[in-house]
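Re: your question from the hallway

Yes, I did run it. Sequences:
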Amino acid sequence: GAGVSQTPSNKVTEKGKYVELRCDPISGHTALYWYRQSLGQGPEFLIYFQGTGAADDSGLPNDRFFAVRPEGSVSTLKIQRTERGDSAMYLCASSPSAAPGTQYFGPGTRLLVL
Amino acid sequence: GENVEQHPSTLSVQEGDSAVIKCTYSDSASNYFPWYKQELGKRPQLIIDIRSNVGEKKDQRIAVTLNKTAKHFSLHITETQPEDSAVYFCAAWDSNYQLIWGAGTKLIIKP
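Structure:
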């Protein structure tokens, strides 16, 4: 079946601009996670959704970052007033439930802020 | 909160030899420990996981051991092959429903 998909695969933007990154999880997966990965480091937790609600957004670095999942499926990570330090790979993962278990990752969106 | 440390950061082994990567965690409530493999430019993929009620788990050439008392777990790869070259990440599931990741180990298999 279809895995987790993310669009766009690459995004180049200018400092100060607004960007949206989209994640389409595996059908039926209720849990959805956003991570940020910088080169040479492990994924850094940003936010976790269980259904439509953000169950834990403690990893969002500041109020420029926001994410939604209005219908409990597709999620959008929104970054306002982008900064060069936001440049990274943004990974989305989904899992069947909130219980500890396999997280299935999407291919990621590589964001470059010039 | 949970803190995961992973060693070594780089590991170079001869093809056919074994590789061992070690991780420690801090939260004694953590109960799920996956290992992910990430090839260059690709997404992380789960290769094996272990839950806290088990001490060891094997899947062909890959095994994971868990010592709850010492709060450490290890990945063992036997008979290494060129396609095992990648970055390996350990992770621990903490009590906040977050997966906390180690910094990764770059495994290099020398022909």
